[in-house]
């Protein structure tokens, strides 16, 4: 029988492997068009916020280094998908938000991506397993004292760009 330490490390390795396999499969789907999956993550995070946020707040919620995120934001601004506005609370800082074009792009890609996720993950796991996976992941993401502050990717059990009925199609 494996001890707790071994079980934890085996579970961690399985989680990382599953994540890598799923990301590769999702990246290969024909849904991204004008943005990469990482750029979409930035657009999605900004869409979730609903109001302009500081770059440090965006950095907290995406899996990129600060320099890489800064370069990506520069590219998204140049392409007209993200805008910078002066921070009303701190003249030295800016806030980031989606442009109208960025919001349209995020919603279009988000709907296709959500269908792809539903097909990819839903083809492997049944409803009970999906609920169990969601519960375990939320428990890991929300552990007390972890210092992690990643915003949940789903609000009210609904993807921002797609309904459950659309995902089931």
The overall pLDDT average reads 86
Enumerate the strands of the largest sheet in spatial order, edge to edge or round the barrel.
1-2
Q: Give me the CATH fold name of the largest domain.
A: Arc Repressor Mutant, subunit A
- Give the percentage of residues in beta strands: 5-15%
- What is the straight-line distance between the termini? 43 Å
- Classify the helix fraction into a percent range: 55-70%
User: How many domain units?
Assistant: 2
- Ranges with pLDDT <50 over ≥5 residues? 148-169
Question: Biggest sheet, open or closed, and with what strands and sense?
Answer: 2 strands, antiparallel
Class from helix and strand fractions: mainly alpha
CATH class annotation of the largest domain? Mainly Alpha
DSSP E strands, number: 2
Over all CA atoms, what is the radius of gyration? 18 Å
The CATH homologous superfamily of the largest domain is termed Winged helix-like DNA-binding domain superfamily/Winged helix DNA-binding domain
* Order of helix and strand elements from N to C terminus: HHHHEEHHH
Shape: globular
Which architecture of the largest domain does the CATH hierarchy give at level 2?
Orthogonal Bundle
How many helical elements? 7
């Amino acid at each position: 029988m494996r001890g707790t330490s071994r079980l934890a490390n085996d579970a961690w390795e399985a989680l990382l492997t599953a994540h890598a396999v799923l990301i590769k499969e999702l990246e290969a789907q024909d849904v991204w068009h004008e943005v990469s999956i990482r750029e979409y993550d930035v657009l999605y995070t900004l869409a979730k916020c609903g109001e302009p946020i500081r770059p440090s707040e965006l950095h907290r919620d995406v899996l990129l280094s600060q320099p890489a995120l800064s370069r990506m934001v520069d590219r998204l601004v140049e392409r007209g998908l993200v805008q910078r506005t002066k921070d009303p609370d701190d003249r030295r800082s800016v806030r980031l938000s989606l442009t109208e074009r960025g919001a349209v792009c995020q919603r279009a890609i988000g709907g296709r991506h959500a269908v792809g996720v539903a097909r990819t993950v839903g083809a492997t796991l049944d409803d009970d397993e999906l609920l169990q996976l969601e519960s375990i992941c939320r428990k890991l993401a929300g552990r007390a004292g972890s210092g992690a502050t990643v915003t949940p990717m789903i609000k009210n059990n609904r993807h921002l760009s797609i309904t459950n009925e659309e995902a089931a199609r």
